[in-house]
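INFO  loader      accepted 1 record
INFO  loader      residues=116
INFO  predictor   begin
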Amino acid sequence: MKKPEISERPLVGLFGSESAYQVLMYLENYGKGYASQMARAYGISLNQAQNQLKKFEAVGLLVSRIEGTTRMYYFKESPVTEGLRTFLRSMRGVLPRETIERYYRERRRPRRFGKR
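INFO  predictor   done
INFO  writer      dumping tokens
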């Protein structure tokens, strides 16, 4: 049986903007991230990513800390963010395959030594 697929359009509307939706989905998929990484992944401006991250941190959904010279963002641990993350995970599960391959399959570590 083929799994159902949805359009991202209702999700963009739910979060108010495409960049807000993308920032949250990126963090749900990878667990952490920084603004220029997200901007590069989605082809949005660095300013858009930074504004969304600051907005979500100001309302208490995200926390950040400096790691080296980079400000990394994470979901704050709370019942609200756990509910949000559960929702985002379930939506990622029904996104079109092309969207998953394009945005959420980035290689995060090097290949095993000797593997071809």
